[in-house]
Amino acid sequence: MLKVFLVAHTPMPEHVVSAAAKMCYSDAGAEALLDGMTDESAQRFLHMLGEIGHESPIEHASFTFAIEGVSRSLLAQITRHRIASFSVQSQRYVRKDAFSYVVPPEIEKNAQALALFEDTMELLQQRYDELAQLLAAQRRAEFESQGLSEKEIAKKTEKAAIEDARYVLPNACETKMIVTMNARSLLNFFRLRCCNRAQWEIRELAWQMLALCRNAAPSLFEKAGPACLYGPCSEGSMSCGKAAEVRLRGERCGR
User: Fold this and answer.
1) Which of 74, 109, 177, 223 is deepest in the core (most CB within 10 A)?
2) Which of 193, 214, 247, 252 is catalytic?
């Protein structure tokens, strides 16, 4: 099950971004950048940045999320957002005994498809376990011939076995990660991934992340989300045609 937590962010992110903007437009010294800064003045700076399209100061605020219960398929998508930092649970070092997996909603609501899907997951678990066992026996003999201690042999054998056995694990296999993005990257992420045309799993993650960001920095993320929240759809002829539905979710997000 998808879970996301905002575990850390730049202290007073809106003040920090506003101070960075102030540096660009004022001859005030560095020590005076935050002098007299209030929530209201910070909000004015943020609105000004939005109006003139000056986005670079927004990069000075960063947000770190803990994410779990998502698939390796989602991992492949989120890591395409390259201005970010990722720490992901390793399948080389973490053995997948009775691995958890994500079931797509369309499969879950079809009894026949769900049964086939679950049977496939069970088979893949069996094959993973069998491969790990075979490879462990094979590599143990190799490590024993090197004169290593039993502790070293056990450690190296386990890692070597699951490193190759993991190749049969599916995209559905659950993973967990820590993700850090600056606010500018997050605005891009929300514009693309909150859109109805984004894949269902990463779209749900994006909306939950947006709600957390709006709670932490409401002015900074006031107009975050897909293009149709505040203007015309940017997808042209490929629009989902559900702008009203998306706007309703945008209004509720972060409340």
Assistant:
1) 74
2) 193
